[in-house]
Amino acid sequence: VPAALLGSALLRRPAALGAAAARCAPARDSHGPPRQGHGSSKAASLHWTGERAVSVLLLGLLPAAYLCPGPAVDYSLAAALTLHGHWGLGQVITDYVHGDVPIKVANTGLYILSALTFAGLCHFNYQDVGICKAVAMLWSL
């Protein structure tokens, strides 16, 4: 048996294995339009970039809150912490909540929670000492 024929015969998938793999693996259509509920890869890439930007912003805001506390840093922290938490809890919902109605309920609850969190932090910044001063007061205990 020539080596070229033997090599190509070994590389072919047996028909039984091909049929079993087709039954087990979900069908993928990479050339069609995005399926319902799935954004485009550009939107996903921008979202991923935004998450990383907010994380890096938080890394810069934490020392800024210690070195130069003030209203600008307080409100920036309120926005960045709320957005960071919103995206994180959104991933928990994506991973663990299944079914159309439970997902809609969970997402609605998440938006309400995020809005209340941001409003509460802004109220705390405006009516009380602010996030930076509050953390400094906690450290002084």
TrEMBL record:
Gene3D superfamilies: Fumarate reductase/succinate dehydrogenase, transmembrane subunit. It holds the Pfam family CybS. The keyword Amino-acid biosynthesis does not apply. GO terms for molecular function: heme binding; metal ion binding; ubiquinone binding. Pathway: Carbohydrate metabolism; tricarboxylic acid cycle. Keywords: Electron transport, Heme, Iron, Membrane, Metal-binding, Mitochondrion, Mitochondrion inner membrane, Transit peptide, Transmembrane, Transmembrane helix, Transport, Tricarboxylic acid cycle. Heme b binds at H84. One of its GO terms (biological process) is mitochondrial electron transport, succinate to ubiquinone. The keyword Nucleus does not apply. InterPro entries: CybS, SQR/QFR_C/D. It is a multi-pass membrane protein. It is found in: Mitochondrion inner membrane. GO terms for cellular component: mitochondrial inner membrane. A ubiquinone binds at Y96. Component of complex II composed of four subunits: the flavoprotein (FP) SDHA, iron-sulfur protein (IP) SDHB, and a cytochrome b560 composed of SDHC and SDHD. Membrane-anchoring subunit of succinate dehydrogenase (SDH) that is involved in complex II of the mitochondrial electron transport chain and is responsible for transferring electrons from succinate to ubiquinone (coenzyme Q). SDH also oxidizes malate to the non-canonical enol form of oxaloacetate, enol-oxaloacetate. Enol-oxaloacetate, which is a potent inhibitor of the succinate dehydrogenase activity, is further isomerized into keto-oxaloacetate. This is Succinate dehydrogenase [ubiquinone] cytochrome b small subunit. It comes from Oriolus oriolus. The gene is Sdhd.
